[in-house]
Amino acid sequence: MKNEEMAKAILDHVGGKENIESNVSCMTRLRLGVKDKSKVDTDALKTLDGVLAVVDADTLQVVLGPGKVNKVAEPFAEMTGVPLGSGEEDPADVAADTTASQSTDVKSIAKENKTANKAKHDKPLQRGLQHIANVFIPLLPGIIAAGLINGLTNVIDYQTGQAFVTDWWYMTIKTIGWGLFTFLPIFVGMNASREFKGSAILGGIGGTLCLGVIVPGFPLGSQAIAMPFTNTNYVVGVGGLITALFMGIFFAWLERNIRRFMPSVLDTFFTPLLTVIIGSLLAVVFLQPAGAWLTNAIYLVMDFVYSKMSVFGGFILSSTFLGLVSVGLHQALTPIHVLLNDPTGPTKGINYLLPILMMAGGGQVGAGLALYLKTTNKRFKKMVMSSIPVAILGVGEPLMYAVTLPLGRSFITACIGAGFGGIAASLFHLGAVSQGVSGLFGLLIMEPGQQLTYLAALLVAYLGGFIVTWFFGFDESRINEIYPEK
Q1: What Pfam families does the annotation carry (predicted)?
Q2: Reduced to 3 states, what is the DSSP secondary structure of residue 62?
Q3: pLDDT tens digits, one per residue of 26-44
């Protein structure tokens, strides 16, 4: 079936274009917001050639697989007249969708356990952190690309004595790498304002106050200006990305409240005007100092954990990380990773935290191998082997939610084993120049020259998870209780 034909068939089975509110393409899925779900023929959708699965959740999710989804999404958007959006795919969904030939058992159990676990821990804190993550997650493709470019060009400059700095093509590439991080506060401000129901462009205007460089023509920062209350000189870009986040949220709140009282005839002109004027003045006086304080606190905590606690800090971080993932609290680390990958920050764009956390997945892989070798439960063996390959590549959610987490003890021993990988990552002083991948794919984002030591640390995590689970994390009766053989 051609892409246009598939798009038309999907549209016919979801109630036509009048029933579509939104359509978002992720890595593997077309996520549709429908007005009336009673008009959706789920069974007919599942029978379409090329449709791998249909998930009826908060949005209707048509699983088409990587690559295919974008080719179908574009004609679908044209047919509906609803602009195509893009979103970040859940790693567990990616793993399940790209391994559609695997057992449906592991996919369904992983999804059920993940949904139940999220519902159990669905608290205001988790929801708030999810909003923050939604600000930064759409930026990750650019951050990944720019981070890799910066890391690669830095190595080339060092190895060649900056031999290419007079070549136009090389300087163009370097500009791309540095350009994103230079203007990243604008994008953060836009996303934050949009996420909190404001106008994205107004949040972006607030983000301009957080640029870490003096832009020609910008009056603020071009000369010494005393600030109120503190009587200290204004510092360009103080607070950085954290302040930009605050500004986007504040501008959205301010815009909504001004609009409530603004007469309709004046709304178009005066609501945005008052938002940017009032918001900017208050932001410079109050939000920027608060953002600067929080940013400095984050760097101090990271420095203490990494430098002062050393291997003990590495063990704690890597062994507790998946516990945070299981309840959704890992979302709080997303802006921290962005901060650490900023080449203008104290770490010069090298993220020393991420490699330690990446060891958590290695502990899960080792635990899964131990469980596979010791159990006699054939259904469970099949489930483990369906999850381990993608876990090795860095997508560990199916292994965690379908295998170790339901067993309880195995999850704990996997986390403890991962701690030894964290110790190795600390000893080797591993650093990442970007983010967005893990497992073996983590080799792509390590500092040049650290690939072998990263593999060594990952192997330690595998062995740690395997050994601790082999001796302390195996319970055959528990496996048979949760996964009875049919």
Answers
A1: PTS_EIIB, PTS_EIIC
A2: strand
A3: 766 788 888 888 899 988 8
Catalytic residue among 24, 26, 205, 460: 26
Furthest C-alpha separation in the chain = 76
Tokens of 179: 């350009």
**Cβ contacts of residue 191 below 8 Å, gap of 6+?**
134, 135, 136, 138, 139, 200, 203, 248
Residue holding tokens 């635990």?
Answer: 367
Task: Decide if 458 contacts 442 (C-beta within 8 A).
Answer: yes
- What region, left, alpha or beta, does residue 25 occupy, with left being phi > 0 and alpha being psi -120 to 50 degrees? beta
Q: Give the span between the Cα atoms of 36 and 66, in whole angstroms.
A: 28
pLDDT tens digit sequence for 219-268: 666 667 777 877 777 777 777 888 999 999 999 999 999 999 998 889 98
**Paired sense of beta strands 60-63 and 53-56, if any:** antiparallel
Q: Please state the rounded mean pLDDT for residues 104-109.
A: 52
211, amino acid identity = L
Question: Counting Cβ atoms within 10 Å, is residue 480 exposed (0-12), middle (13-18) or buried (19+)?
Answer: middle
What is the pLDDT, as a whole number, of residue 101? 40
32 vs 17, 39, 106, 169, 306, CA distance in Å?
11, 13, 25, 41, 43
Tell me how far apart the alpha carbons of residues 306 and 298 are, in angstroms, rounded to a whole number: 12
Higher pLDDT, 110 or 272: 272
Helix (H, G, I), strand (E, B) or coil at 233: strand
For residues 10, 16, 17, 23, the Cα torsion angle rounded to the nearest 10 degrees is -40
DSSP bridge pairs for 226 = 233
Of the candidates 72, 68, 2, the one whose C-alpha atom is nearest the C-alpha of residue 32 is 72
Average pLDDT over every residue of 80-108: 54
- Tens digits of residue pLDDT in 341-354: 888 778 888 899 99
Angle, CA 189 vertex, CA 151 and CA 174 arms, to 5°: 25
Residues whose CB falls within 8 Å of the CB of residue 45, separated by 6 or more in sequence, listed in order: 10, 13, 14, 51, 54, 62
Using a cut of 0.70, tell me whether the model's pTM lies above it.
Answer: no
Q: Supply angle C-alpha 423, 424, 425, rounded to 5.
A: 90
Question: CA angle, corner 352, sides to 27 and 208, nearest 5?
Answer: 70
Q: How far apart are CA 438 and CA 418, in angstroms?
A: 14
**Is position 26 annotated as part of the catalytic site?**
yes
Rounded mean pLDDT of the chain?
83
CA angle 10, 11, 15 (to 5 degrees): 115
Residues 383 and 113: beta-carbon distance below 8 Å: no
Q: Which domains does the chain have, with CATH numbers?
A: 1-90 (3.30.1360.60), 129-304 (no CATH), 311-482 (no CATH)
- When comparing pLDDT for 97 and 179, which is higher? 179
